[in-house]
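EI: anyone free to look at a 715-residue chain?
SC: sure, send it
EI:
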Amino acid sequence: MLAASVSGWAQSTAPDTVAPATAGTTQVEGKSLAPVTVTGTRDRAAQTYQSGITSVGKMPVPAKDIPQSLTVVNEKLIHDQGKDSFKSALENVVGITFEAGEGGRVGDNIRLRGFSAAGDIYLDGMRDIAQYNRDVFNVERVEVLRGAASMLFGRGSTGGIINQVSKQARPITEQEVNATVGTNGYQRYQGDFNFKLEGDAALRINAMATDGDGRGDNAGASTHRRGLALDYRLGIGTANEFEISYYHLHYNDKPDWGFAWLEGKPAPSPTNNYWYGLDSDFQNDKADALTLSHIHRWTDGSSLKTTVRDGYYSRAMWATQSSFGAGTTGLNLNPNTLVNRRTNAKSGEEHHTFLQTDYLTTTHWFGRKNSLLVGAEYAVEKSSRSTYPLLAAAKPATTVGNPGSTGIGGNLTERLATEFKATTLGLYVQDTIEIAPDWKLVGGLRLDNFKGDYERTGNTAPNNTPLSRSDTLLSKRLGLMYQPNEEVSYYAAYGTSFNTSGDLYQFDPQSANTPPESSRNMEIGVKWELYGGDLSVRTALARTEKYNERNTDIDTANGSYLLSGKRHTDALEFEIAGRITPQWDVFAGVGFLRAVIDKSGSNAAGQLEVGQNPGLSPSRQANLFTTYRIGDKWRVGGGFTAVSQNKPANSVTSLNRAPGYVKADALVEYRVSEGTSVKMNIDNLTGKVYYNTLYRGFAAPGDERSVRLTLTSRF
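SC: here you go
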């Protein structure tokens, strides 16, 4: 396909068609006249919270033409709420919970419908599995597709996938600058500069600098982020379009790892006020990625897009995990209670190379319209993990009333421990057929070969021998849509997914002999477009089932884990997004989850898990954000995030529970002049103490009350 793409470029000496959103071509007797380009200043106020056209299904279609649950958090919603991180933007999505970056990982650690999605994060349709905390300074929208989706994306995707869509250069000159200051020393400066260049080229530059202190009276934790993104496009909308983009993110934070559980619940005050880390703590991570792509368009509307991405990622962390001394209870807790501190240290590098190509065309086989997708993906993913063998694990203890954070020295000499190399080849085909008036059938197949090689020479015997495994899997997708008019779409869908033992770049002697886990998703739903298409409403009922999960039992003859476990999640969701009146915007969702372990290991501990919630699957979630424009100058709004009682994953029979909570936010915006506005966001309006990042050993509180003032200038 890459050869065909280049061949098509060589054979096209002049544009056959011009089809960007801002350009049109008049057809006269089969000939193309010169394009007429319409330009104007983008006005975010004219946008709504709707998803618009999405390519999360690998074909650019409206959300109502995707037979699965889809939530899109777009740029307008992110801006209005003042979100500055990938994690905070995802708080708008029911069904998502957050796990602390433990268990050998750092960075964004997400659960979707109760299933781990740490390996199911994508950037512009390509896997973005590297371990780092993502920012949204270069994000146009975040798309969350729920349910098994290995036919579209390969391994993983049991609970769904999360795709970040980057900002692209457009054939228009426009600039936007945002300057934000707030409580706890918060400062954030963003610049979005788009230049129309000569001919059909454009350049876009996004830059970001963010600094801020963490929670607590001693405000020890902090963040210091810098980002730069460049995007250059040539031949926009023509027969041959080229794009080159570069992304860089660097942060040097003092991470906040919360506090150990106490008596089955998050440790009480003052652990939600004080940070018990040390000034010498750090989390220093970098992400650099270069992406090249080419689109060839034929006059019949067919297209071939080929994309190559090469990314380098590094991480280094020396953090503090805190807990009370032995014998502490809620009754004897006092300012003199002992606080123990230990080290959480991680280091590693990743190098990912992806090649992906997709051919889209429309045919009329047997008198029926077919929208055909044929694609291929090749990936080489390298990951290394290092340790700090000379670093002392213990840190000086303190007391509850003395959260002193005086730094200490440590020998941060690294030693390479493990290296993992994964190669993937995927081939897929999907067809959307109009089988009858108002009826569409979506069917797809994908064949993946995943091979992993794990070198452990840096470990001590007997854990220093190499391990490897190769698997070939077939994934399926089937969807039926009934669309009696432009306003409504009823659908039923079925999809499969698989999780290889090396999904997250590691093996042990048993998992290297264990075949992949398999999952399936069954879903029915309805999507409406109301108020003349200004308001999108959807509801869905789904079951996601992992029916051969690895468990603690071992097949002694084969030296592998038994795939005899089973668990499922039932989900009921409602969501609205858009504009009710020209002045009134709304984004809201309600979700109900019932997650259950159906089968587990045969030992006593495994049997105790049967019938239990697997964790990070709260039974109820809801969110709302709405704004109302008053006259030409003022806009007010606000909303809430609500989550029922929750518990950490991987500790099914544990009694640890984080209480449910409702967190409220508010917005006031004043339009100073055309293109200039001042916005005040108040997050956690009531100062609610809540815990939204959980791990079996620790719980970290969410953000405390903050006030942020943003000046936005568009010109």
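EI: The helical segments are 2-11, 75-81, 86-89, 150-153, 604-609.
SC: 👍
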